[in-house]
């Protein structure tokens, strides 16, 4: 019963968050990538809620708290440490090299970390937290704020490198 209530709440929250964002009008809607039962992980759901709750926090290069602002890796580090007690590496390059299951793009689940090459050189330069339904939370750039975006938008689709699952259904993967 509690799992059912959580899933209904999660679906409602994602729906409302999607309605509140500024997604391009001509972008096709993406179907959810996993069934609710296959994707259910209470800790991953807590990561998702915490990340979405930080939308609107200012971007600050090197920032790693809500009061100081966030850069992309600072946001991810803060959310995982705050919710799950997991201390992740500080940079996107180090996060990409850490232990964790590499995830196919069509198997993404809430809480997975997405990696991007925004400079076009094929090396990781940006990351965000997947929240479901083709969307992710990230701290994109100077002068901006933490926001939700579609991984399938033209820009992010082109920059996408890979995803990593730090949380799985049975255990937390801990970086040595």
From TrEMBL:
It holds the Pfam family NLPC_P60. This is C40 family peptidase. Belongs to the peptidase C40 family. Residues 1-23 form the signal peptide. The keyword Amino-acid biosynthesis does not apply. Residues 41-167 form the NlpC/P60 domain. Keywords: Hydrolase, Protease, Signal, Thiol protease. It comes from the Bacteria. It comes from Denitrificimonas caeni. Transmembrane segments: none annotated. InterPro entries: NLP_P60_dom, Papain-like_cys_pep_sf, Peptidase_C40. One of its GO terms (biological process) is proteolysis. One of its GO terms (molecular function) is cysteine-type peptidase activity.
